[in-house]
Amino acid sequence: MERKLRVGIVGGTGMVGQRFVTLLAEHPWFEVAAIAASERSAGKTYLEAVADRWSMAGPVPEAIGKIRVQNAAAVEAVCEGVDFVFCAVDMSKDETRALEERYARAETPVVSNNSAHRFTPDVPMLVPEINPEHLAIIPLQRARLGVKRGFIAVKPNCSIQSYVPPLHMLREFGPTRVNVCTYQAISGAGKTFKDWPEMIDNVIPFIKGEEEKSEQEPLKIWGRIEGNAIVNTAEPVISAQCIRVPVADGHLAAVSVAFARKPGRSEILERWAAFKGRPQELKLPSAPEQFIKYFEEENRPQTKLDRDFDKGMGITVGRLREDPLFDYKFVALSHNTLRGAAGGGVLTAELLAAEGYIAAK
C-alpha cells in the first residue's frame, strides 16, 4: 500500500468508537484522520470529549487525542479528509440508516458496526472468514445509490460471533436445527461495572432485540446472491436465548445442533482445526492466525482466561459431546468488543481494501 488510508470514526466517543481508536492508533494500513460524534462533542479535542468516559485500559493515544471532533451530521465536511469511515453511532435505526446512506452517497465507503442496514438486501453483512463472496453485491449497491466508490458494508451482531464460525465449518453435514443460549458481557451494552453497578452479582434473562438478531442474522450470512439481493438460506432453524451476565467482556454460547448427516466427532474437530478463510490466506493485519481453537479440557473455554485468544480475534470452542435431543453440543467464546465489534469492523475494512473495494481518494 503506497500510503495509509485515511479513516474517520463516526460515533468515535462511545465504547465501540473508543475501541476503534485503540485498534487504529498503530495500524499498518489505516490512520485516523477524523473523528465525528454528536453536536455536544463537536469542537472539542478528542481527549476533552472522552475525558470523563474513557473506558479502555490504556490512555487515549496522544496523536488521536489532539484531533478536533466534528459533527457527525456534517457529512460533507467529514468526508473531505477521509478515504472511508467506520460508523458506531448511538442513534435510532432510522436515523442511523439515513446517516450511513448520506456518507455512502458522498462517495465515502462505510464500514458499519450498527444494525440499521444488516437486512438491507444489497448490503453485505460480513464475517470475513465466512462469506467474503458477498462483496460481489457492492457494485449492485453502488448502482442503486448512484455512486462510483461509496457503499455500506456491515458486521453482524456480536452475539453470533462465537457460534456461527464453528457451525459454518460443519455446513457440509447439513445443520438443520440449532438451539443456542448466549451469556453476554455488559460491554455489549456499552457499559462497565462502574456505570452499571446493578449488574454486579446479577443475571438479566433478557436483552432487547438480541434473540431475533441471533436467530436471523446467520441466515443472511449463509445466504446467496440472487439478482440484486442477498437471499437468506432456509436452514438451519435457530432458537436463541440471550442472557446478560456479570462479565466485563466476552460472549459465551452453549450450542446444540442437529444435522441432516451426523458427522463423527473426529470429523468435526478436524474441520475446526484445519479451517482457514480469506483473511488468513491474505494474511490481513488483524486476522487471527488460527481462527478456531478447540480445548480438550472439560472446563474450557472460560471467559476470563480465553476471550483474548489471538488478540481477541480468534474463537475458542470446547466441550464437544453428543446430545440426547440433537446430535452434538458444545460451548464457544468470542470477545464481543474485539471480534464482535470494532475488531471485526477493522478486519472487514482490511478485506475490503485488499480486494480493491476501498482505495485512496
UniProtKB/TrEMBL annotation:
One of its GO terms (biological process) is methionine biosynthetic process. The active site is at residues 158, 251. SUPFAM superfamilies: Glyceraldehyde-3-phosphate dehydrogenase-like, C-terminal domain, NAD(P)-binding Rossmann-fold domains. GO terms for molecular function: aspartate-semialdehyde dehydrogenase activity; NAD binding; NADP binding; protein dimerization activity. It holds the Pfam family Semialdhyde_dh. NCBIfam families: asd_EA (TIGR00978), PRK08664.1 (NF006416). Belongs to the aspartate-semialdehyde dehydrogenase family. This is Aspartate-semialdehyde dehydrogenase. The lineage of its organism: Bacteria, Bacillati, Bacillota, Hydrogenispora.
